[in-house]
Amino acid sequence: MTERDEEDRADALFHALADRTRRDIMRRVLAGEHSVSALAAKYDMSFAAVQKHVAVLQKAGLLTKRRDGREQLASGNVTAVRSVASMLTELEQVWRGRIARIDELIASDTTPHRSQKE
After folding, report:
1. Which of 36, 65, 83, 96 has the fewest CB atoms in 10 Å of its CB?
2. Residues ≥6 apart with Cβ < 8 Å to 16
């Protein structure tokens, strides 16, 4: 996978998780398989709107769907969620490193300061 592909994947994952309803759908499908119609019943929106949210999550790879008769069953993809957690951990490490360097610079600043009474 190229760096560009990885960045596109990160964009899709974070876009999918940027919406409150989609994050709630993820919590539900990570706890267990749900039919799309059962998911739709939980929200004050049309079935088609919930289907669109599920499609965004599916396209990002965060959930999978399978057909069982007339129903479409959605399940969370734990591996994809772990990859999001890994990306966030990487970003946290970068920022912790930057903050540590700033702290070191502040601590090493031993330049005597003139008093204002001079």
Report:
1. 96
2. 22, 56, 57, 59, 60, 62
